[in-house]
Amino acid sequence: MGYGHLRAAHNISSYGESPVLRVDEKPYIHGIDEFLWRSSQSIHTYGSRDKESKNKILYSWFENLMAIPENGTPPPLGPSKFIRFMQGCGAGDKLFKMLHESNPALLHTFYLPAMLLMYYGYHGKSFLLLCDTDFHRVWVPLEPRRYPLNYCVPISSSADRLISYGVEKEKIFVTGFPLPPANTGRGDLRMIERSLDFRKARLRSDSILPLTIMFPFSGAGAYSNMLSELVRSIHEDLKEGSLRLMVSCGNNKHALKSAENVFINYGVEELDSAEIMFDEDLFAAFDKFNSALDATDVMITKPSEMVFYAAMGIPLVFLPPIGAHEVKNKDFLFENDCAVNMVPPSDFPRWLDKSRRKGLLLDLAENGFTRLPKNGSKAIDELLCS
Fold first, then answer.
1. At 174, phi and psi to the nearest 5?
2. Tens digit of each residue's pLDDT (9 = 90 or more) over 252-274
3. How large is the angle between the packed helices 3-16 and 282-293, nearest 10 degrees?
4. Are residues 300 and 244 part of one domain?
5. Are residues 189 and 157 in the same domain?
6. Where would a tag sit more exposed on the chain, N or C end, judged by fewer CB atoms within 10 A?
7. Residue 35 pLDDT class (50, 70, 90 cuts)
8. pLDDT of residue 72
9. Alpha carbon 23 to chain centroid distance?
10. Same-domain status, 205 and 174
11. DSSP secondary structure string, 306-345?
12. Cα distances (Å, whole numbers) of residue 126 to 78, 99, 150, 247, 269
């Protein structure tokens, strides 16, 4: 669906050298599947971008549809019943037929194929990875005790949510989120510690080294307006070389065009200190992003799956969340003092300088590294191979 789910799949695949099956693409789909995937992706994409509009009609509808229950209120079952109905209409049938004879062990990073295969009676070992700290009831099948679906969750409170939805404790494994093994290594943390040491040297209050800002676009390409305002406020610093900016567009051509236009508008398109990362191959784009993380000093992002990257010792600055799950992600990082909210872009250069001088950026980096789980890829790989 979005980058968060595909990024997690890529990280796990990179660790265990197992293939990633894009079950939203051929040969795993037929007509009704294409309708289900394309309509869902369109709602997600345009609903996310609608966050920036004045009326926010589509975004508000999307928010209400995917609300997370609070204060003991019953979870909404409408989306879950819709998936069961679509399975009854044949959605997921081709995927099931292609997999059920060999019954390979599967790790799902999005709920839709997991739910469909359960309803068809898939007998292979199946795990569903939760890519947020909290989530909608749609991640659990109707009558969950009937199905052999196991869960990998990033934090312990995610397990509590699953239990409240009717999932049995023995089907839940607290693994952490899978971070890229290219950056974290294979569990001994020496690579990530070395990278953190270099970052802390740049973040120290007495450092005169230029800081590097990472701005990753989401799969929907939201917040292009925020990028424009940010570059407007720091373009002189980029020209002087006192700041660096990396914009990660994934394989999103909408995001790429927006970033290119912004860079041209402020005359930074040819600077070594201003870089746009893009690749039509999404997994190659993820590799480029991962390669840039060691040089990243501050990341400006919405609280998506990127919240878990604070575990690498990268201070996070949050754009407004899109969806109830991102509100929960944001709350989790605030509880652990790993992130702050974005200031008005016009104030960002002054805020950045002040935060470094006062040690705030260094504190955020150290808190993220010491308080958040870092070995999710290893834990999930061991679970799948057990």
1. -85, 105
2. 999 999 999 999 999 999 999 99
3. 80
4. yes
5. no
6. C
7. confident
8. 75
9. 19
10. no
11. GGGGGGGT--EEEPPP-SHHHHHHHHHHHHTT-EEEPPPG
12. 24, 12, 6, 36, 46
pLDDT in the model for residue 43:
67
Question: Average pLDDT for residues 212-228, to the nearest whole number?
Answer: 86
* Amino acid making up residue 158: S
In this structure, the answer to whether residues 194 and 125 fall within a common structural domain is no
The structural domain count of the chain equals 2
Q: Is 304 in the same domain as 252?
A: yes
pLDDT of 134-183, one tens digit each? Answer: 999 999 999 999 999 999 999 999 999 999 999 999 999 999 999 999 99
Q: H-type helices in 50-143, by residue range?
A: 57-65, 78-88, 93-99, 111-120
Structural domain that includes position 279: 183-371
Q: Are residues 91 and 199 in the same domain?
A: no
SS (H, E, C) 219-279: CCCCCHHHHHHHHHHHHHHHHHCCEEEEEECCCCHHHHHHHHHHHHHCCCCCCCCEEEECC
Tell me the one-letter amino acid at 328: K
Q: Do residues 132 and 279 both lie within one domain? A: no
The mean pLDDT of 284-290, rounded to a whole number, is: 97
Strand partners, 370: none
